[in-house]
Write a structure and sequence with these properties.
Jelly Rolls, 3 domains, 5-stranded mixed sheet
């Protein structure tokens, strides 16, 4: 016989019970119908997909008909054997789920596995990788090792749950990777992480993100943060903007209290955007939905040094200097005056037909401005928006003009978020992609830096030189 608990964990069975029995409580939430979802906490130690965690009573004997009060059996999930972990995870998910169900009366959420064990120390993250998830399309890995467990860190849980929602109901173009406060991030990464922090906090109605650890941990306040680096490339700025759009505690130039619905709608509208998903398309969508609040939205943007639209952003090369100065970093070779980044506009526009409709010289770096080592930094990628007049083959040719061997450019082509082609060999690249007339394609030229890759692999910067990490290349685009 089976049943489901209510929101307080109470359950009941109807009927006569005779003999020995046990009660098992599964770490699972499931509903079908107009609003549907299916979430299970799986034991990451038992492979893929893994077994669903369950709490089981000892054997009990009952004879005759049960009436109220004489057939009660309570199950308690204890910390001593870590059986409380899976149910704590579902508690965090339930906070987020209640908000989502209130936003959409007909929402259909795909199956999600939350993979945890008391020995898992490999990190907490959302992924669609079959290596981690197995046969299910979406899973969240959650740390459980005693040195740094996350099952009671509900901001961590709701952050990762927001990644799941964004990936399935909206769109995420983020390339992932390490990130932290005061990091100059790829704008897709800054938006994705800031969005997950902010909406995860909105689900909990708590702007103070806390990630505990044995003897340490960290926290930050989205309402009263003290981050020094501000801009569309800062996850701290993104999360502060979204929180200020939502909350009722208005300060400074913040006089808005939008609640979650307009933010949710703007996020979901990016599912079909021709742009990359980052802060400015989100803000544009928000203004379309709330045209009367445009001035107030712009005021909140200004508090984080973000322009009113993408075209208003200036060349941010000098922010490398200001970021390093604020952080007390010296001896770098990443001054804006020498790097010559033309990062305005954020996406260059190309259209037409024929040979060499675009030709440009660029620099790229995964090192300059980086705080957390990673191959996902602001100056690592150049984006070109291409709209061909005719269908046929688009050819992108990128020539590495630098004399060092530490970095090289790679090429990726997207259409509404879908990867249409890529080339990532050593040195220069030539990539042919079939395109349709009138559609918008995003060409990304991304610097792969061997120095940064070495730091990520070994934790040492011995391999690096003063010139390493500054890619120089020319790019040419031919359209049909």
């Amino acid at each position: 016989s089976s049943t489901v608990t209510d929101e307080s964990g109470l359950y009941s069975f109807n009927g006569d019970v005779n003999g020995m029995f046990k009660v098992r409580a599964l770490a699972e939430m499931k509903q079908s119908g107009t609003q549907s979802y299916h979430f299970q906490v799986k034991n990451i130690a038992t492979g893929k997909p893994g077994s669903t965690f369950a709490l089981q009573s000892s054997q009990a004997y009952i004879s005759g008909s049960c009436t109220s009060g004489n057939c009660t059996l309570n199950l308690t999930a204890l910390h001593s054997n870590r059986s409380n972990g899976p149910f704590a995870i579902l508690d965090g998910v339930k906070y987020a789920l209640d908000s989502v169900l209130a936003l959409d009366s007909s929402i259909q959420l795909p199956e999600l596995h939350l993979r945890w064990s008391s020995s898992n120390s490999s990190g907490s993250y959302f992924t669609r990788s079959t290596t981690t998830c197995g046969s299910v399309a979406n899973c969240i890995a959650i740390k459980g090792a005693s040195s740094d467990s996350d099952e009671f860190d509900w901001h961590v849980i709701t952050h990762e749950f927001t990644h799941y929602l964004e990936a399935n109901l909206a769109r995420s173009d983020s390339i992932g990777g390490p990130h932290t406060e005061n990091d100059l991030l790829d704008p897709r990464v800054a938006y994705g992480e800031g969005l997950a922090n902010a909406i995860g906090a909105i689900f909990l109605d708590d702007p103070v993100y806390i990630d505990t650890a044995n003897g340490g941990g960290f926290s930050f306040d989205m309402e009263n943060g003290t981050h020094t680096l501000k801009g569309y490339y800062s996850e701290s700025s993104v999360q502060s903007i979204i929180w200020d759009l939502y909350d009722s505690n208005n300060e400074g130039l913040d006089n808005l209290t939008l609640g979650l619905m307009p933010i949710w709608s703007a996020m979901r509208s990016l599912k079909t955007t021709d742009e990359i998903t980052y802060l400015h398309p989100f803000v544009s969508a928000l203004k379309v939905g709330r045209p009367g609040d445009t001035g107030s939205i712009n005021a909140i943007l200004s508090m984080e040094n973000v322009a009113t639209d993408a075209n208003g952003e200036s060349d941010v090369s000098a922010d490398v200097d200001s970021a390093y100065t604020a952080l007390g970093v010296t001896g770098h070779n990443c001054a804006g005056s020498t790097m010559e980044y033309a990062y305005n506009p954020i996406l260059e526009n190309v259209s037409g037909s024929g040979s060499s409709v675009y030709s440009g010289t660029h620099k790229g770096s995964q090192l300059c401005g980086a705080v957390a080592p990673g191959l996902n930094k602001l100056f690592g990628s150049q984006f070109i928006r291409v709209t061909p007049d005719y269908s046929g083959v688009m050819q992108i040719t990128v020539t590495d003009t630098d004399t060092n061997d530490f970095d090289d450019p790679d090429v990726f082509v997207y259409q509404a978020g879908d990867l249409k082609g890529s080339a990532a060999t050593d040195g220069g690249e030539t990539l042919n992609v079939i395109v349709d007339a009138g559609k918008v394609y995003i060409v990304e030229i991304r610097t792969f830096d061997n120095c940064m890759a070495y730091i990520l692999q070994t934790g040492s910067s011995y391999y690096c030189t003063s010139k390493a990490g500054e890619a120089e290349y020319t790019a040419t685009i031919d359209l049909p």
